[in-house]
Amino acid sequence: MISKNQIKFVRQLEQKKYRKKEGLFVAEGPKVVGDLLRAGFKAHTIFATSEWESQGQTFQEVSDEELRRVSFLQHPQRVLALFFIPTESVPSVSSLSLALDDVQDPGNLGTIIRIADWFGIDTIYCSENTADAWSPKVVQATMGSIARVNIIYTDLQELISKAQVPVYGTLLDGQDIYTQELSKEGIIVMGNEGNGISAPIRKLINRRLLIPQFHEGPESLNVAIATAITCSEFRRRYPL
């Protein structure tokens, strides 16, 4: 049985101000919830139907109808959990990482987190105006990858200006990524969907890259697609 107050509490976590106030985020489905639990994320409350394989986890059993009332998904998937948002600390940049300069779309952010996980990039630095990684839409879009990638919100300009590694960015005046020299360590900056990399950050980029266009038509690539292409080329040259 789930109470009206519990439903209200969970639904409020769709908004960033309540996630920040409570220090909690929502995850749904056996895959995402399971990945977070295995990664050591601390659960606050778990609501699940009797069909969920709990692996010994304590949970509050609810009916399918009750789960639908609290879920953010069109088709709820047996379990919804509230997790504590991990405490952020900004480590020094010493390996290959991503920096997102005001990426706004939750779907793009979730996909980029999943891409980072695929290519073994364990840290993403986000500008303060980048979409919130702990929103339900982003968490679900990561398909569990958010459990394995560190998401750090920080002042990108300050971080990059102090970095002791190459700073890469995909720009129209860059050099062909397939012929340009790349390094094993560095920061790969990806920009806003509409405006690209902001002027202050662009000034700090010392390795300008271009993803070449092989056919006239589209004016640009989606930021998540561009991230995947860029990460793929780095990992092709420097496998883990």
Automatic annotation (TrEMBL):
Which Gene Ontology MF annotations are present?
RNA binding; RNA methyltransferase activity
**Which of UniProt's keywords are assigned here?**
Methyltransferase, Transferase
- Asked if the Swiss-Prot or TrEMBL record annotates the protein with the keyword Acetylation, the reply is no
Enumerate the spans annotated as RNA 2-O ribose methyltransferase substrate binding domain.
26-89
Q: Which SUPFAM superfamilies match?
A: alpha/beta knot, L30e-like
Q: Which domain of life is it from?
A: Bacteria
| InterPro entries recorded | Alpha/beta_knot_MTases, MRM3-like_sub_bind, Ribosomal_eL30-like_sf, rRNA_Methyltransferase, SpoU_MeTrfase, SpoU_subst-bd, tRNA_m1G_MTases_N
Q: Which Pfam families match?
A: MRM3-like_sub_bind, SpoU_methylase
Methyltransferase in keyword set = yes
Q: Which SMART domains match?
A: SpoU_sub_bind
Q: Which PANTHER family match?
A: RRNA METHYLTRANSFERASE 3, RRNA METHYLTRANSFERASE 3, MITOCHONDRIAL
Report the sequence similarity comment from the record.
Answer: Belongs to the class IV-like SAM-binding methyltransferase superfamily. RNA methyltransferase TrmH family.
This chain's protein is named RNA methyltransferase, TrmH family
The source organism is Prevotella communis
Lineage start? Bacteria, Pseudomonadati, Bacteroidota, Bacteroidia, Bacteroidales
